[in-house]
Amino acid sequence: MTVKGEATVVKHTGSHYLLSCLPQWDLFPAVLRGKIRLKGSSSTNPVAVGDKVSFEAELPGQNMLDSITPENPAVITAVHPRTNYLIRKSTNLSRQSHIIAANLDMAFIIATIDFPEIKLPFLDRILVTCEVYNIPVTIVLNKVDLYRETHAEMLEAFHNIYEGAGYNVMEVSALTGEGVAQLRDACKGRLSLFSGVSGVGKSSLIKAIDPNLDPRVGEISDAHLQGKHTTTFYEMYALASGGFIIDTPGLRGFGLVDLSKEEIALYFPEMHKVSQECRFSPCTHTHEPGCAVKAAVEEGLISYERYSSYLGMLDDEGKYR
C-alpha cells in the first residue's frame, strides 16, 4: 500500500536523507523523486535539514514507519514553504548558493576569541544573513576558560561591539560546564542551529548540553590554530531536555546571497537605527556629507570594527573568507 505523509528532514548525506515526524523522534530514510527545484532558487541543495516535506512510501501492510528501510526508502515529493532559512554562497566566485538549514527558531553562532582566533568580518556576514532571513540569533563565546584572563581586554571589547549592536552574547565552556545550563534552557522547545568556523567546539557543546548525544568532536590544528573538519553532514539532534539542535560542518567561507549593496546597511541594526538622520537618502555611509552613520562611528556609538565589515561587504569581489 502507498502511504503519504509529512515529515521534517533531520539529516542530509549527499542524495540520501533521514526524516522524522516531529516532535516524535522516529527516523526513517528517504530519497528525492527526480529533481525538486524551489521556485526562483539556484541553491545546490533544494532540500535542507529543517525542511518540512511531503513523502510517499510503499509499505507491505499497515502504516508502519519501521517498514521504511534503506532498501525501501520513502520518496520526498515536495518541499513545503519555509518560514526562514540560512543561506550562503556555496564557493568563492560561485553564483550558486547553499542552504545551511531551514525553519529555525534560533541560530546560535559559536565563536571563540582565540583557539581559533575570531574573524569579525566573517561573523558579521553570518549576522547580516540572519537579519535578512528573519532568524533570531545569539552569539555564543565558547572556551572562555582558555582566554578569559589572558584575553580579558579582547573579551570585553567583543561584548562592547556586539551587545552595542543589539546582539545577545553568551559566555560558555563545554569543558568546565560554565554557561551550559543557560544554553540548554535557551534551546528548550526550539529548533536551533549551531554554526561557526571549524574548531570552535560546536559538537562539544552539543554533547555538554546532552551527554547522551555523540556528535563527532575534533581537535585544533597546531599549525594554524584552526579547526579540523569533523562534522561532515548537516544533522539534527533531539535533546532529552526538549528541543532540537542542527549541527553543521565548520564553515570556511560565507558569501552573501541576493543582497544588493544598497540594502546591506539595513541589516546592521545599529546602522539602520541612526541612518534615518542622514542628510541624503539613499546614503551609502561612505562619502556623503551629513551622514549620521559616519558621525556615529566617529563618536564611538557604532564600532569601527562593524563599520569596517560593512565597507568590506560593499567592496565584495567574491572573496568570502
Question: Which descriptors would you attach to this protein?
Answer:
22% helix, OB fold (Dihydrolipoamide Acetyltransferase, E2P), alpha/beta, 3 domains, two-stranded antiparallel ribbon, Ribonucleotide Reductase Protein R1, domain 1, Rossmann fold
| Helix and strand pattern | EEEEEEEEHEHHEHEHEEEEHHH
The poorly predicted ranges are 218-231
CATH superfamily of the largest domain: P-loop containing nucleotide triphosphate hydrolases
* Oligomer category: single chain
Number of helical regions? 8
Question: What is the structural class?
Answer: alpha/beta
Strand order in the largest sheet: 1-2-3-5-4
* Largest sheet composition: 5 strands, mixed, barrel
Rounded mean pLDDT is 86
Tally of domains: 3
Layout of SSEs?
Elements: E1 2-13, E2 16-20, E3 28-32, E4 52-58, E5 74-79, E6 85-89, E7 97-102, E8 106-111, H1 120-132, E9 137-141, H2 144-147, H3 152-164, E10 168-171, H4 180-187, E11 191-195, H5 202-209, E12 220-221, E13 226-227, E14 234-238, E15 244-247, H6 269-275, H7 292-298, H8 304-314
Parallel strand pairs: 3-5, 8-9, 8-11, 9-10, 11-15
Antiparallel strand pairs: 1-2, 1-4, 1-14, 2-3, 4-5, 6-7, 12-13, 14-15
